[in-house]
Every structure is written in structure tokens, then in C-alpha cells.
Input
Amino acid sequence: MDDRQDFRTAIAAQPQWLERAAASAASVIGAVPVTPWAPDETVAVVGMGASTHAGAVFVTALREAGVRAINLDASAVAGFPDGYRPADHVIVVSESGRSPEPIAAAAKLGVPPIVVTNDPSSPVTAGARVVVPLGGFTDSGVYTIGYTTTLVALAAIARAHGVDLGDPADMAGVAATALRDFADAAPAIAAALDERRFVDIVGLGPSAGSAQAVALLFREAPGLASAPFETLQYLHGPMESSGPHSATLLFGDGRERGVAEQLRAAGALVIRMITHPADGGSVGEPGVCHLSVAADGYAGAVAEIVFAQLIAAELADRRGVDVGHFRFPQPDTKLPAVS
Output
């Protein structure tokens, strides 16, 4: 699965793949015995790269629903002592199924995991309790479809275990709405970002996971220096480097309003993305983008990443970047594909 799809084509194709992923996940999970997660049990999500950031969105949503949950970098698991068991239930996420760190983590944590992957025949599935396939699509070099379908698959897993984060089948519609709502705004936002030295990505709750995913996306695709922050952490020093040379992308409509006012007063470019229709509170505020249909909470993470993907594609074109052709290819981030 080393062939890669064009970045823009992959972005546009997400609604159809999210719909398929929801149906596939429901079918697979429905065919095996599943019991609800107990209140005194811990759920761990393990991944690398963008999969880690999808895990951050998911784990935060689980905690808000009352589930004890942790998000682990697969690389950190390598340092755990043998026999160390941080959770009762483990979900390992690897789109390719060939990243060595999740493969090693799956074997070390001592719990037969649920594995989420785009390639059910890949090495990461060895020893899995259940394999939830994402769909077998060809993704872009900078992952797009894989990230959003992972969010869908994780929501389906949660639902099967008694935790409702929203209907996974509805997330395709959220992606389609975001594609439609933000396509026209993306070129101007990209042009404004291109004039700044760096961008901070800021959000609270599940949107903090989106901030992580978007910061990676902006680094990988258009090569824009970026860093993610949780909204309240951002108040404790990080925003001090902002000014006429910088930009901040804010996800949210709470404390983010006051942050936006302060940053604009300092000359920073501020973009605020909100996952529900305008309610009058942001009328006249520059740089605010609303989703036309409410998708707050977990589903909002789909809209947030699609919004950023559209901007990243425009910015990459402005900079002449061939998205997915990396300047620093690494020899050990993927095991060889088996033909």
C-alpha cells in the first residue's frame, strides 16, 4: 500500500470513506462478543504520529463520558517494564499496520488489543482480539482519510462498549458539510498564514487533540512551523511569543473568545473555527468560520481537521510543495510492505 493518492483528491474523498468505515466497523464489532467497559476499568489507546492525535481526541471524549482512559505514544511503551499493564483494555491504532512502535507495543502490553488499521493483513494485527479495518483505501502521503476514518472507527468501538460519542454513521455528513462550508474561505486564510512565521493551534477538550493533529498536518503538508496547545495551558506563557509575525488558529467558542481579542490587539493573525452555526455572539468578529450544521464534541473533530486540510492544501500550492514527498525520509518508521 505504498502508492499514494493526491492530497486534494484524498481530502475530497473522505465522506464516502467515512461512511464505509462506519458500516465496516459496526459489522466487525457486531460479530464478536463485546461487554461494556466497567467503571473501574481503564482503556488505553496506543499509536504513533497522527494516530496518537486521533487517540487524544478519543480519550478526552471518553473521559468526558466518565470512562477512565489514557493515550499512549507507542514509542513510550518500549520503556515500560516487562509485565507492566497500564490498562484493562487496549486499542492499538496504526493506519499502515507497519509502524514498528505500535507493533512492539501491541506485543508488550499484556492485553490482546483491539487493532484499528487500514491493512488487516499487516504485522500489527498479530495477537489482536479484534481487527477493525478502516477500508483498504489508498491515502495521501500526509494522512487525510486515515485520520478521519480512525475517528469513526474509535467511535464505533466506544459505542459497542457502552459509550455513546455520537453515531459514527453521521460523521461522513460532518465531513461533507465542512468541505462545503470552508472551501471558499481556505484560499484567503492560506494567503494570510503564508505571511506569518509560525502558527499556534489551540483548543480545549477533544479540540486539544485536533490542535495536535493540525499542527502535525501544517508541518508535514505546507511546511509551516506550528505548535499545538490546550487552551488553558496557552494562557500560562506560550502566547507571549505572539505578535505581528505570528498566527493563531483557535478551535472553540468559550475562553477562546478572550484569547482572540488579546492576540488581535497584539497584531497577531487570528482564525477562530467554531463547530456550530453563528449565534450572534461572533457577529462582526474578524476571522471567524462557523460550521453550518452543529457538530460539537467528538464529531466536531472531523470538521476541525477537514477545515485545516483545506487550508493546508491551499498553502502547499502557494509554496510549491509536493505534499507527501518528504524532505527527510526515514528508513525505520515503516516495516517493508509484503507483496
Remarks:
- The domain at 173-319 is CATH 3.40.50.10490 (Rossmann fold).
- The chain has two domains: 7-165, 173-319.
